[in-house]
Amino acid sequence: MPEDYPRETGVADRPAMAVPQRPDASSDETAMAEALLAPDRPTPDAVLTARRFAVYRNNVVVGLIDAMAATYPAVQALVGETFFRAAAREFALAHPPSSPILIDWGGDFPAWIAAFPPAAGVPYLGDVARLEWAWNTAYNAAEAKPLDVAALLAVPPDAIATACVALHPSLALVGSPFPVVSIWAQATGRVTARPLDMGGGETALIVRPEAEVDVRVLDAGTEVFLQQLLAGANIAEAAARAGGDEDLLAERLGGLFQLRLAIDLVTAVNENCL
Length: 274
Hints:
Elements: E1 3-4, H1 27-36, H2 50-71, H3 73-79, H4 81-94, H5 109-114, H6 125-139, H7 149-153, E2 164-167, E3 172-176, H8 180-187, E4 202-207, E5 214-218, H9 220-230, H10 235-242, H11 246-258, E6 262-266
Antiparallel strand pairs: 1-5, 2-6, 3-4, 4-5
Helix pairs in contact: 2-4, 3-4, 3-6, 3-8, 6-8, 9-10
């Protein structure tokens, strides 16, 4: 089953701040909101002084950069604070939030930083960012009560193969050709730094079954097994595509419940679980 990493006991709260809106009620307000994140635009006519507006504009951008740093601490650790804040500023100006709820903002950053030319020398940076966004999403995901192993033991043996498993809504898989979990764990201080085989890929399992977000490394077969369950396969179909014998299937099924990944188990279903 997956390798566990020390869990984070902190919170994922981002800095509270006022995010510029794009109201329809006032052309002056709209102009001000649009100019806040567009430094090339002139100071809106409704603003008393250009200097005062520049201070406010800077405060908004700094707040957005701080929000990015709170969400992507491993990325910042890997490239350094100066580089990260400069990159985060460019991202914020190119992809401003459309809502004052900042926990929903920043999901485009992994793809953006992966294609950011100055970061080309750190080819795993985008994958680390994807893991951190999945962590953030898991932390803020809907609550759901996991099933315990007794729910599996209650299913008649001849009904297990066609049963469908609903996985926790916070669950995500992040695969990479690099050791993404090990890089993330070292960058965030969860484990002691050591040399890594950068040619060895890892797939992360990210889930928050209770209060804390859990991150583990998955073996290839378990990764396929979970992917198939997420795609709507029943247990037998997922097991066949993941490979392995009956003992390995029993281990994977047990792991679903021991790791509290399953929230429902349905035995009377059609051919497709979705």
